[in-house]
Every structure is written in C-alpha cells, then in structure tokens.
Amino acid sequence: MLIYGKAVSADTRIKLKTEVEEFEKKQGRKPCLAVIIVGEDPASQTYVRNKIAGCAEVGMRSLHYEFADGTPQEKIEQTVKELAADDSVDGILVQLPLPKGYDERKLLSLIPDEKDVDGFSPTNLGLLAMNRPRTISCTPFGIMKLLESTGVSLKGKNAVVIGRSNTVGKPMAMLLLNADCTVTVCHSKTQNLAEITSKADILVAAIGRPRFVTEDMVKDGAIVIDVGINRVDGKLVGDVDFENVENKASFITPVPGGVGPMTITMLLANTLQAAKAKTE
C-alpha cells in the first residue's frame, strides 16, 4: 500500500488550523515563523515559498527575509539576533544550504534553542537522544507520523536507516529507538549493506542517490520510507527503485508525494508548539 504524505499532511494541517485559531483567541496573537534565505538557489526559493504558503494556510504569521549571495555574514547575523530578541517571533528558520563562503554553524548557533523549529540545535538533538524531545527535526518527525498512519505497531521491529546526516539519519534513528525499535544505521562505509537492509521490517532511505535501494535489498513485507529527492532525466525519483521494490513492500512512500509534504507540515507544528511553550 502506498503511504501518501499529501493525505496525512492535509489532515494534520486541518487540525493545526483549529489549534492556531484557539491559540489566537487565548493569546491575542498568531504564532509567528521567520524565514531567512540567502542567495537565489531555485530549490531553496521554492521551499521558502511553500513554507510561507503553509503558514498562511493554517493561519500563522510569517516573516520573510531575503539576502543576496555576497551579503556580509554580519548583516545576516544581526537579523537573526533581532529575531531572537523579538518576543512576537516563535520560530526562526535559516534555509539551507547556504551559498559557499558562509559560516553555517555560527549562523545557526544564534538561533535560541526554544526558537529552533528545525530541531537542528545540539540541545534539541541532545534532548531527543535522551527521549525528552522538545523540538524534533521536521523530516524525521513527519516520517514518524507516516509510520503511525499505517496502524502497524513499531515495538520490537527491526529498523534500518541508510544515511547518518544530522538533519535526517541520526534523528530518525533516535526516534525509532525511542519507539522501541531495534535500530541499525548504515552509511557509505557499511559493509554487506544488502545483507543488513534485507532483514529490516522498516527501511528508511536517506542518502541522496537515485534508485539506490534495489529489490534484493528489501525484505518481503517491509515498510519502506523513501526520503530521497533526485532529478533524473527531468523526472523526480527517490533513493529507492520504486517500480521493483513496490511489489515486495507492505507499505511504501512514493516520490514525489510521500515524505516531502510532511516536512513543512511538521515545521508548522513545531512553530505552534514553540508558541504554546511560551505560555506554559
């Protein structure tokens, strides 16, 4: 069965809109997300537009700051500092990747942990590792919602994550571990990869290599989550060889339309949660 992120995302946004309306009635203001983008990367521009549109859809306020490539880092840092000090701003997001020449780590470090709605800060990742999550990285958070939508219990399942990035692979592994899965993280140096992945009840592919996961790497009846977005011959494809793997999986996410729609939705959920946390 296909796991359509669009459907799960739509249902989640309906609930978020209701919660945002309730928040506004109680607090007299809308939750607010500030988005900063540097440069003219087309994909990043699209992502930012979608984030702003998502805010409008659920009734949140959004702020949008664009800087040309070559803008001094100090000027961008000053904007982040001002947003960090602004009590009306609940979440701050710096669109990644930044153009070459910018110190990404330094810029992100200026975002207060409580306004880190991407869930990338060392503190938020540390809390997740301790199973005391405050803000969860958006893509892994969305994947957990997709897994939940299958109705399959995760307890005791053998889960394999291909990819060890700080934004997807590592937080994904921690979330699965917190959900009582037995978790293996594979990467470019992993030996006998197919032997490991073929035993997975849940397989998450997040490596950015088109159609890398082939039929022989997948266990019969596995749940397959494809995080990859790759452009091949003008067509978007995932990290999984969908046409062949689909026949072996019990559930699988398509690309596009699977994991992607959930990422921005969970960003909105994180922003609302950050706004609520100020009132607790």
Describe this protein's structure.
The protein is of the alpha/beta class and 280 residues long. It folds into two domains: 27-113, Rossmann fold (3-Layer(aba) Sandwich); 138-260, 3-Layer(aba) Sandwich (Rossmann fold). 41% of the residues lie in helices and 16% in strands. The protein is built from ten helices and ten strands. It has helices at 5-27, 42-58, 73-85, 104-109, 122-129, 138-149, 169-178, 193-197, 242-245, 260-277; strands at residues 32-38, 61-67, 91-94, 158-162, 182-186, 202-205, 223-226, 230-232, 235-237, 251-252. The strands form three sheets. It has a five-stranded parallel sheet with strand order 5-4-6-7-10. A three-stranded parallel sheet has the order 2-1-3, with helices on both faces. Strand 1 (32-38), helix 2 and strand 2 (61-67) form a beta-alpha-beta unit. Helix 2 packs across helix 10, helix 6 packs across helix 7 and helix 6 crosses helix 10. The chain is globular and about 50 Å long. The mean pLDDT is 96.
